[in-house]
């Protein structure tokens, strides 16, 4: 019932953002960006920790001023996740956060200023082995490109990116990744596809300014999903006008759906109809919130009736098929026990946690055996 993923990753150069590998054969990383005032150190630290707890691999922080740079240094000391500093215009900010322990600099070399300033930032990045992300955005294209193309286009985005790439090439600096973001799905997808064929560096994917939680999720899933299915992309950020934690959840849902990377519970649930023998929607809403802390990959099917229930449940690690007078639980594809609707969510949570613990123990045991044989 479940097909293997046919996706073949684009070959790219690998860089390190802190302790997270990006590109090459490394897992596609998931990241988000804080939306607190960076100078509010406690609020920013608290948000970064929530983003990390949701499953982020990397977090980006805007650093628009020297005061924010000093605050970044304080933040860096209080969190463990790799941090990217988002910097525009003032090269001195880049130099300062580099000394304060930044793991990656998000800049556009062309807007840093004169060649001497660009070289100073690149030299510092080289000396401290800090990668750079070139971040091109359709909303902030260079004026001459706006005039040349009349409006943002995929070719304009790529031309802008290649300009910045050329600057780094001339400085013999290859430790970088690139993004070419647009709010228009077709524009972003076309730009990334073209750029992927022209450079070997890793690509940071995103549909910028995608919208609110619902509309932005849909737009991002279409755009990033198309690219990921092409094998394009080494790290992703889902841009939502919402709590950054939601960006991480959506990012992981995308990777799980494409069988690229798994983490936490993957629910297979029916949309419910009059055949259901329990309230599927309420059950799912409660379960998703209760088991968000589980990190071990686990497939759980929650199906309201006997039409598709047994088939889906047999393919999952744990499955529930609605029935009368009792619902049937499957574990590892085999019927295991019956549950009534009374305390159904409590009992499901208990079974899911037990199965997750069992699966984690197996993962740990396999890891020990590999180490022992090495």
TrEMBL record:
Q: In which pathway does it act?
A: Isoprenoid biosynthesis; isopentenyl diphosphate biosynthesis via DXP pathway; isopentenyl diphosphate from 1-deoxy-D-xylulose 5-phosphate: step 5/6
Q: Does the keyword Zinc apply?
A: no
Its EC top class is oxidoreductase
Entry-linked InterPro entries:
Dihydropteroate_synth-like_sf, IspG_bac, IspG_bac-typ, IspG_C, IspG_TIM, NO2/SO3_Rdtase_4Fe4S_sf
Q: Where does the IspG C-terminal domain lie?
A: 266-353
Superkingdom of origin:
Bacteria
Give the required cofactors: [4Fe-4S] cluster
Q: Which family does it belong to?
A: Belongs to the IspG family.
| Name this polypeptide is given | 4-hydroxy-3-methylbut-2-en-1-yl diphosphate synthase (flavodoxin)
- What organism is recorded for this protein? Cellvibrio fontiphilus
